[in-house]
Amino acid sequence: MKRIFSGIQPSGNLTLGNYLGAIRNWVALQQERSYDCIFCVVDQHAITVPQDPAVLRQATREVAAGMIASGIDPGDCILFNQSQVPEQAMLAWVFNCVARLGWLNRMTQFKERAGKNRDNATVGLYVYPVLMAADILAYKGTHVPVGDDQKQHLELSRDIAQAYNSMFGVDFFPLPEPQILGAATRVMSLRDGTKKMSKSDPSDMSRINMTDDADTIAQKIRRAKTDPEPLPSEVAGLEGRPEVRNLVGVYAALSDQSMDDVLSEFGGKGFGDFKKALSEVAVDVLGPIGAEMKRLSADPGYVDGVLAKGGSRARAIAGPIVAEVYDTVGFLRPNG
Ligand code: AMP
Ligand code: TRP
User: Fold this and answer.
1) What CATH number labels 204-295?
2) For residue 129, how far is its CA from the centre of ligand 1 (angstroms)?
3) Whose CA is nearest to atom 8 of ligand 2?
4) Under CATH, domain 3-179+299-329 is a member of which superfamily?
5) Following CA atoms 186, 217, 49, 154 in sequence, which dihedral angle do they give, to the nearest 10 degrees?
6) CB 203: neighbour CB atoms within 10 A?
7) Cα 140 to ligand 1 centre (Å)
8) What residues line ligand 2, using a CB cutoff of 6 Å?
9) How many CB atoms lie within 10 A of CB 100?
10) Are 3-179+299-329 and 204-295 in the same CATH fold?
11) What is the pLDDT of residues 251-305, one digit of tens each?
């Protein structure tokens, strides 16, 4: 059986990076109907850095609303928030006792996020990728659609699955495969083409939020960093121009074209026309999603109901899988 599992953190506004790198691909995969799909708002991952409880609750609803507004259909797949299913954290503990310090020490995202003051990072931030492996494997997930930045974490998930199987002499967990899809697997900041566009960047001008209105989107694109040269006519001409490469990639992804197609239309021209066309397509794609998010946000009861139902469907799958793990590792369960 092919089962997709993916997750997204409720830590700030959803960005165009989340949409192009992840959510849009999830919708397409769900519509293919060849997978069983499970999508999770990972609130337990969010608390690896400090969160205001009321803001976290609200962000969890908002991210779920963003997924539904983008086309995730809770009738076709399971949509829930992580903390509703204790089995994922239960499995994470077992995996903490399978994964090795050396493997976690290699994780580049921890190094970036912990920064210079590593001693002050939470232990949760350090074992974050172990919980991610448990998220996927509590459902025996086989395919994991994510943006490029999650590649290393997924390799770790595969290592953990393999190490568990060999430690206990079983063929229990599949080795989950990454699905890194589309023309914009790594959308960069509008202010600095070497930095990932991120929900947590202090500058709102660095990102396009899925709830930004048309004027805000146009203004952010107008101010996006470029350089004085015209657009090149070939992809090779993007070398050493990270900001330009990023905008061309985003335009290609939003308009379902290749970067070559985009450059054959805009090559040799200045950025004025290109930025105008980019704003138009961004507003066309994000406008209706943002409007639907606002509509859903006005009805938190609906979103909460979707998450509650998704949570109980998810537990029904994860429960027996994690129970089998408990038996395998030798935990006594006197009541069955
Ligand atoms: P996060 O916001 O870190 O929880 O990420 C949720 C999903 O969005 C993951 O699959 C990420 O890889 C993807 N994602 C986040 N930011 C970007 C970006 N700038 N470009 C492409 N994908 C991204
Ligand atoms: N670490 C992922 C991110 O920040 C979110 C995530 C948590 C996830 N658990 C997952 C993604 C399981 C895929 C599968 O983007």
Assistant:
1) 1.10.240.10
2) 15
3) 7
4) HUPs (3.40.50.620)
5) -20
6) 10
7) 22
8) 5-9, 42, 45, 132, 135-136, 144, 146, 150, 153
9) 10
10) no
11) 999 999 999 999 999 999 999 999 999 999 999 999 999 999 999 989 999 999 9
